[in-house]
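Record type: monomer structure entry
Structure origin: computed from sequence
Chain ID: A
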Amino acid sequence: MFAARRLWTVSLALGIGISLPAEATTTHSGKTAEAQTRHIATVFPGRMTGSPAEMLAADYLQEQFKQYGYQSDIRRFNTRYRYTTKDGHQNWHNVSASQVIAAREGKEPQQVIIIAHLDTFTPLSDADTNNNLGGLTLQGVDDNASGLGVMLELAQSMAKIPTRYGIRFIATSGEEMGGLGAENILSRMSDQEKKNTLLVINLDSLVTGDRIYFNSGLKTPAAVRKLSRDRALQLARQLGIQAATNPGQNKQYPKGTGCCNDAAPFDKVGIPVLSVEATNWSLGKKDGYQQRAKSKAFPDGTTWHNAQLDNQQYLDKWLSGRIAKRSHDVVRVMLPLLKELAKAGK
């Protein structure tokens, strides 16, 4: 199963020198990522799985990919979630989720997958609703219009660059319900597709957190960690961007990288993953859940799922310039990294 990946890691390692490659010295603006982040968040708030806003956002993403020149389609799957009322009654709600896949084949059958979830948090109880968690007004700038924005700029930048390996961009849904979208994508992959998947890169919540983290999966082989996570950290350092990796490989932190993002289903079956997120693992102790220090503006140290906090106006006020800076910094690292991983030509 891993023969193709071993050949990939060897050939890629031989092609990476100690000095920064020419692509990485180019100034990638991140302007497309920022503009798309703001557009998706403000035009499509309340992107709950199966909602009209989610379907409209999926249509928009598909159209963007097509404009960039990719083959793109929307795949739907049916699922359900349980809602708990204030008096304890539980009801099942059926929904139809929309996911967007854009692909361009390489010269060889191997592929690199980039994913970012398009759904915002769905309230699962009256308590969630009363606490302004999720709902129709949640813009989800951080979680996860920011990941979609970066993904779109990467797609736009890579659209006309020939690559040895194929590239797939996937906007998932159902992530806020436990990674259902990623599990659905995985279930539709043939054994051969799984074998040919060299790496899955997950982009999620890139704005609010104190630092950018590049995290490998617990089952990601050391050689692939070196070429993905460690290479991303190297690029960040050379570009003067503050970045770190979580302590998931440390025995002190047994949960590792994450139970709760779209990389997890791939990691469980042994497909190499790289998660890109902004948070603060030192504050979050063993789980990395706290994104930043608690303050008057961020009383819980997070903005996740909170409609009053995770919106453009609030983040621009309390984290002035952050959306632009993070878009710029993440693109500057991820674009040259993706070119290396996909073996881009000139």
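Annotation 1: Strands lie at 71-84, 90-104, 108-117, 165-172, 197-204, 211-216, 243-244, 273-279.
Annotation 2: Residues 14-27, 250-259 have pLDDT under 50 and may be disordered.
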